[in-house]
Amino acid sequence: MIIEVWSDVVCPWCYIGKRRLEKALAAFPHADDVEVVWRSYQLDAGAPVTPTETVAESLGRKYGGGEAAGRRMIDNVEAVAAEEGLVYRLHQAQRANTVDAHRLLHLALAEGGPVRQGALKEALLAAYFTEARNVADHAVLRAVATSAGLAADRVDAVLAGEEYRDEVWADIEQAQAFGAGGVPFFVVDRKYGVSGAQPVEVFTQVLERAWADTHPVLEMVPGGDACGPDGCEV
Amino acid sequence: MIIEVWSDVVCPWCYIGKRRLEKALAAFPHADDVEVVWRSYQLDAGAPVTPTETVAESLGRKYGGGEAAGRRMIDNVEAVAAEEGLVYRLHQAQRANTVDAHRLLHLALAEGGPVRQGALKEALLAAYFTEARNVADHAVLRAVATSAGLAADRVDAVLAGEEYRDEVWADIEQAQAFGAGGVPFFVVDRKYGVSGAQPVEVFTQVLERAWADTHPVLEMVPGGDACGPDGCEV
User: Could you tell me the CA-to-CA distances from A234 to A61, B15, B27, B69, B112 in Å, in that order?
Assistant: First the structure.
């Protein structure tokens, strides 16, 4: 089974949804046969590389009410994050572009596979939400990526060029093709979609259903007239 | 979609089930995307190549009541066959082995594909049930197979040797693995099983369900908290 998760590095519900999916997987008996792959999504492709405002300011500007309103929104989501054991420091965080982070996530997947990519995804989310670091900054990205086991020379080469930019756009287009209006957006075996950070039980149900699909016992319609070793029903 | 049908050439319910499946397929809007493959099953692997008794005698011996009881069983199944437009002449038919017929069905599939195999299957059933011919006899098999478009030299080579014998046994083992207690036994996309000659509506329902499975729209669980272009739900 493969679970693809469309997600952004700066999306508060994405980290929360990641934890809920992980809880469901921890209790899932066939978790060893499940591969999780992270797909790119940019909530705010216009965000700058060098921050110009805090997250609170950005939210207040976007939705009205100013920084104070932004701070209340942050308080709300931090409370939910705390329930999942996540420490958010979004009051310190700054609005930043994520395209380079996503390019590194593609590098991790291509050259290290899903496990390496998963380590980088977790490290990037922690860097932004818990450490309030600028995940657009190349020095930050380099430190986070190498701590997650990526080769420094490849990280540098990707950051210096345009590698994996097309893959990032292709992911975003795929999400739109699936009708995802936002993230996190979970797709299991390209068959089931889960929109948003749903309760653990929802992930559990979808996992069980997808597993049954790929490990079918014949669904039988018994009882028709037939001939067997002991003769025909006549 | 692929429909595999475990079936024997001398099985009265198999020909009836074939007609019912065909009726369902004739009304199925995606029939062009359905492939029907015939799998081997032997109801009576101990039957002789050179017949020693009529079907009526064989039935009477096996279930008691003698030839008269056998004739009543034949009358019953012939009445059902007639409802499907099939003319059975089982009173004239003789008990005969079908392993060579099944080997030719494998030849037809391997070298001519499902359409050729389907033509041979129909011709063999007609030869046995309507024409009361001995489908164990190599001259009969040769005539039937070549009339269905098989190459005479390949038919002769297969009949003279042991080709496709393993494939016949493998089919029978697969049927047992699926829990088929008799034939006809229909398997759609290795997901749905239909045991016996069921009504046309049952085939229609299974076809529709299997089609929906292989042409999925994402089954969505909507409504979780998410972040979109217009912000996060906080």
Answer: 80, 14, 28, 11, 35
Suggest the residue from A62, A208, A217, A221 to mutate for an interface test with chain B (most B CBs closer than 10 A). Answer: A221
Structure tokens at A87: 């420490």
The residues pairing with B4 across neighbouring beta strands, listed in sequence order, are: B37, B187
Cα separation, A206 vs A193, whole angstroms: 9
User: What's the rounded mean pLDDT across residues B21-48?
Assistant: 96
B96: tokens are: 């005969």
Strand locations in chain A, DSSP E?
2-7, 35-40, 185-188, 192-195, 219-221, 227-228, 231-232
Q: What is the ipTM of this complex?
A: 0.74
Does any CB of chain B come closer than 8 Å to the CB of residue A16?
A: yes
Any CB–CB contact under 8 A between A46 and chain B?
Answer: no
CA distance A223 to chain B (A): 6
pLDDT, one tens digit per residue, over B66-93 is: 999 999 999 999 999 999 999 999 999 9
Q: How far apart are CA B117 and CA B73, in angstroms?
A: 30
Query: Do the Cβ atoms of B4 and B171 come closer than 8 Å?
Result: no
Peptide bond into A184 cis (omega under 30): yes
Q: Which domains does chain B have, with CATH numbers?
A: 2-51+96-227 (3.40.30.10)
